[in-house]
Design goal:
The structure is a single chain. This protein is α+β, with helices and mostly antiparallel strands and about 130 residues long. It folds into 2 domains: about 35 residues; about 100 residues, Rieske Iron-sulfur Protein (3-layer Sandwich). It contains 1 helix and 11 strands. The protein has a 4-stranded antiparallel β-sheet with strand order 2-3-4-9, with no helix packed on it. A 4-stranded antiparallel β-sheet has the order 5-6-7-8, with no helix packed on it. A 3-stranded antiparallel β-sheet has the order 1-11-10, with no helix packed on it. The termini are far apart. About 15% of the residues are buried. Bound molecules: FE2/S2 (inorganic) cluster (FES).
Length: about 130
């Protein structure tokens, strides 16, 4: 094979490989679209003082010395909930669903309670919350 032919063939293969990769990328991205990923949020001791503290999509709820966590995602269409410290309720800014501080649905278009997430207390006093996103 001549040198020029070898280079042409090599460039053709390179173009073929790059073209295939460019076409395959969206397909693999779509396949991984619903892949469940986990996220860990750590609440440091100074972030555990309020009745409900929001951080990265999750609320840490303090009831005396007990803690639990709730997803901040509204169970209607997924908007991020706001906590009203006066009424001690979660309010959805999108369509007005209302949830108790326990996560129980009170009113609005949402039909289910908020998702409860286990809390792990670390030896140094941090509260670790791991949830699926
Ligand atoms: S998204 Fe919360 S009420 Fe619709």
């Amino acid at each position: 094979m001549e040198r020029r032919g070898f280079i042409k063939k090599g460039l053709s293969w390179l173009a073929y490989i790059l073209g295939t990769a460019a076409l395959a990328y969206p397909v693999f991205s779509f396949i991984n679209f619903r892949k469940i990923r986990k996220k860990t949020v750590v609440f440091y001791p100074d972030e555990q003082l309020a009745a409900a503290n929001f951080k990265e999509g999750v609320y840490l709820i303090r009831k005396g010395t007990d803690f639990n966590a709730l997803s901040a995602r509204c169970t209607h269409l997924g908007c991020t909930l706001n906590f009203d410290a006066v009424s001690q309720q979660f309010k959805c800014p999108c369509h007005g669903s209302l949830f108790a501080i326990s996560g129980k649905r009170i009113s609005g278009p949402a039909r289910t309670n908020l998702i409860s997430i286990p809390v792990k207390r670390e030896a140094n006093g941090d509260m670790e919350v791991e949830f699926e996103i």
